[in-house]
Design a protein that fits this description.
six-stranded mixed sheet, alpha/beta, Rossmann fold, Beta-glucosidase, seven-stranded antiparallel sheet, binds beta-D-glucopyranose, Jelly Rolls
């Protein structure tokens, strides 16, 4: 037996499976097939005969986006990598309880989360949405999150199964990964979430997979879905396609997919019915899928449901005191101290701080969540400025942006947009394929940049708008459009394209990126200026995502010279007792839909840091990013904090960390490179449609170790505010199930109470090309008083001592000689200690 032994048979579950099957048998085939495709983008069909109400699903990892066209407010958690940086499975569980409460409040049955793909390359666009580059840490955090949510009767759909580690050509590339690497690395967190948290749904990815057993889209990979996930792991939930990922009828039906989303339309429905009639798909296969959906319905309470959504109460959970407190704690606890010469914490009671310069693009406009389907409309935003004012009530605070981290202007203030006739909004006219008008010209609120209220027969659109620029000085106007267009500013053609956009705009490319015509206009002191904007646009037919026109106005009203902004920031820093510089990325850089070309901080932010540092030796830099960025000045700055994408409690959590009210005890769940040239996997561009995982199982820090490269900060690193001796191994004991208990002792040599993140690594004594040199095998948190020691037992699961044998198709205990080391990062470790003699236990291999 080992930690991954099959879930024991549950007599009740069996009885219920038999009952489910009996009920399904009464249903006509057409009704069964109908249930296997969504009725809408986010809902399944009801089946009155089975007393099944529509099951409702929604994104995503950091909060409940909801299924309305315009998102309604929801608690906005820190990004998943921030949660992983706490290394705190209890905290992940509390967040799981919160997301379940939010799902219930918004009438959602299944949450499309968490993402347990690994951070294979730091340029991956959805890096912020993943937990870690390590499978064990990813699995542990995800399993706690899922289990806590599902206990509340809300399902989770863990995603994206499998090989979806990047975004470039994400709907077409083939991930070439050996079976062994898949088993030991990329499947491992999915296996944990299936076996330990009994997750109720798994989302099959867009990409294809070549695992050596066959090449197939992830939505129809018979071996991975049927053999591994369903038969071997005993997964009894629903495999749902990623949105529009399913492209075949018979192959996907036979290959293990249970539910096509979104609907209506797609490759199943009538085509699948026909395939059953033609004998290409057995009815028993359809029955199995229906049974799985019905089981999900029972689990989430959609069977026999009387009413669904609980009304959105004014004292909603998203801003209730306990939610605020939990999110605030998560922000503070996730922050990683990358460097600190003793300047932090800035205890307001003790430090002589008369004035603070709060500087940087993220000080004015923090980047609180990544771009894409994970987007959540927060009920409020705790800003750094307000939080620092609260924390340091007696200090003078000057805020300076010091440049920009954005490539494009922010969304326009809708109040400055009118129709040519002067009504608020812009005019939209639609035309059919012959250029005939469809209905009347309508007036649209300028805040609505994706106009989805478009009839299916519309092919083109005309937009007319007037923008009133009132702020004197240089103003920049931009228009974001999708696909074929012509755009005129004041009668001058500023952009034209004949390239037609389709659903790829949403799914697959930087066409979704808000690029478009831009122009600068000078506004004088005396008179505001009005600009006429006219556009001819294509109507985008994005299949199940609907038909829409994209017209997004963006405006930078103070497009002042960046030199001036930088100079003002430096001046503010020079005058202040302390300079706090908030820099980072934006959703233009970190988003679903595209990968990054490099790890540079956008704009002139490095220059900002070095110039501030030159005038103020008491400078603290706070990095507001989800994924690694290069910090060339890292070791020159007195203190550097990694603040992640912190969500609605951004400012309060940061202030708590700065003052030490809560210790920022985060540890990096990934490696922070010092130079781009050192990054083991520098891009995710498919070659001839294939992404070859040539590094094998050496994902993340494992490659850094193999290549003997020195990162800026290693995996697992985090200083907190304690002062620790390197932990040491106080004892080791095998357990009968083949797991190893490692007693780890830590010693807090500092004068503050502090939290340790004890990490256990296994190491190959003789380097083996098929095994990492070293890997994380267990971890635990310990709160230790100043000057005290503490010991904890960390269980290293049996699986950590096993390898996947492709030959015998099973897990076997590794014969390689292994050693154990412990530490608070992957690079500062205790001396290695041999494993105790394994003959002392009776080992079994797991199946
Ligand atoms: C994303 C999924 C998401 C789905 C629904 C897809 O494009 O890859 O993560 O759950 O859309 O929004």
């Amino acid at each position: 037996m080992n930690a991954f032994a099959a879930v024991p048979d549950n007599p009740q579950a069996k009885a219920s499976a038999a009952t489910l099957r009996a009920r399904i048998e009464t249903l006509p085939l057409a009704d069964k097939v109908r249930l296997l495709t969504g009725e809408t983008s986010w809902t399944l069909f009801a089946v009155p005969e089975l007393d099944l109400s529509p099951i409702v699903v929604s994104d995503g990892p950091i909060g409940i986006r909801g299924i309305e066209q315009v998102s309604t407010e929801a608690a906005q958690m820190p990004s998943p990598s921030a949660v992983a940086a706490t290394w705190n499975t209890d905290l992940a569980a509390r967040l799981g309880t919160l997301i379940a409460g939010e799902a219930r409040r918004k009438g959602i049955d299944v949450v499309l989360a968490p993402v347990v793909n690994l951070q294979r390359t730091p340029v991956g666009g959805r890096h912020f949405e993943c937990y870690s580059e390590d499978p064990l840490l990813t699995g542990a955090i995800a399993a706690s999150y899922v289990a806590a949510a599902q206990v509340e009767g809300v399902g989770m759909s863990v995603k994206h199964f499998i090989g979806n580690e990047s975004e470039t050509d994400r709907t077409t590339y083939i991930a070439k990964v050996s079976e062994r690497v898949l088993r030991e690395v990329y499947l491992a967190p999915f296996e944990t979430v299936v076996r330990e948290a009994n997750v109720w749904s798994v989302m099959a990815a867009y990409n294809g997979v070549d695992d050596g057993t066959g090449v197939a889209p992830a939505t129809e990979h018979d071996h991975l879905l049927n053999d591994v996930l369903k038969r071997e792991w005993g997964f009894d939930g629903v495999v749902v396609s990623d949105w529009l990922a399913a492209n075949s009828t018979v192959e996907s039906a036979l290959g293990g997919l249970d539910l096509v989303m979104p609907g209506p339309g797609g490759p199943w429905q009538d085509k699948l019915l026909q395939a059953v009639h033609d004998g290409l798909v057995a009815e028993s296969i359809i029955d199995d899928k229906v049974e799985r959906i019905l089981r999900l319905g029972e689990r989430v309470g959609a069977v026999g449901r009387v009413a669904h959504a609980v009304p959105d109460a004014p004292d909603a959970l998203h801003s209730a005191p306990e939610t605020r407190a939990l999110l605030r704690e998560t922000v503070a606890r996730s922050i990683v101290v990358l460097g600190n010469n003793g300047i932090l914490p800035l205890d307001p009671a003790r430090a002589a701080i008369g004035s603070i310069a709060l500087i940087g693009p993220a000080a004015v406009d923090p980047f609180v969540q990544g771009g894409g389907s994970a987007f959540v409309q927060a009920p409020y935003a705790s800003t750094p400025e307000a939080a620092i004012r609260d924390a340091f009530p007696h200090a003078r605070l000057r805020v300076e942006r010091g440049g920009t981290s954005r490539l494009h202007a922010p969304a326009i203030d809708p109040a400055v947009v009118t129709t040519p006739g002067g009504s608020p909004g812009y005019e939209l006219s639609l035309f059919d394929a012959h250029g005939h008008p469809l209905g009347d010209t309508v007036v649209v609120d300028a805040a609505e940049s994706w106009n989805r209220d478009v009839p299916i027969e519309a092919r083109s659109a005309r937009v007319r708008a007037r923008v009133r620029l009132t702020r004197p000085g240089p103003n920049r106007l931009e228009v974001g459009v999708s696909g074929a267009h012509e755009v005129w500013f004041d009668g001058e053609l500023v952009s034209a394209s004949t390239e037609v956009a389709n659903s790829n705009v949403i799914l697959n490319s930087s066409a979704n990126h808000p690029v478009g015509p831009a122009k600068r206009f000078e506004v004088g002191d005396a008179e505001p200026v009005t600009k006429a904007i006219d556009a001819e646009l294509q109507v985008v037919d994005a299949e199940a995502y609907g038909t829409f026109v994209r017209f997004e106005l963006r405006h930078e009203p103070h497009d002042i010279d960046l030199d001036d902004e930088l100079a003002a920031a430096v001046e503010a820093a020079a005058e202040a007792d302390v300079a706090i510089v908030l820099i980072g990325t934006t959703e233009e850089t970190e988003s679903e839909g595209w990968d990054r070309p490099n790890l540079d901080l956008p704009g002139r932010q490095n220059e900002l840091v070095t110039r501030v540092l030159a005038v103020n030796p008491r400078t603290i830099v706070v990095v507001n990013a989800g994924a690694p960025v290069l910090l060339p000045w890292l070791d020159d700055v007195p203190a550097v904090l990694w603040w992640w994408l912190p969500g609605q409690e951004a400012g309060n959590g940061l202030a708590d960390a700065l003052t030490g009210r809560v210790e920022p005890s985060g540890h990096l769940p990934w490696t922070l490179p010092a130079r781009f040239a050192d990054v083991p996997v520098q891009d995710a561009r498919p070659i001839d449609g294939v992404i070859d995982y040539v590094e094998g199982g050496d994902v993340g820090y494992r490659s850094w170790d193999r290549l003997e490269r020195t990162p800026a900060r290693p995996f697992g690193f985090g200083l907190g505010y304690g002062a620790w001796a390197i932990p040491h191994i106080a004892g080791t004991t095998w357990r009968p199930d083949g797991s190893l208990v490692v007693s780890v002792e830590v010693e807090n040599r500092g004068d503050r109470d502090s939290r340790a993140t004890a990490q256990v690594y296994l190491e190959c004594v003789e380097p083996d090309p098929d095994r990492p040199l070293r890997w994380l095998a267990g971890f635990a948190l310990l709160d230790v008083h100043a000057g005290q020691r503490a010991v904890t037992d960390i269980v290293v699961p049996c699986r950590q001592f096993e390898v996947w044998s492709e030959e015998s198709q099973q897990w076997v205990v590794s014969t390689a000689e292994l050693a154990i080391r412990v530490g608070q990062s992957s690079r500062e470790l205790s001396p290695s200690r041999p494993l105790p003699n394994r003959d002392l236990i009776h080992l079994q291999t797991s199946q």
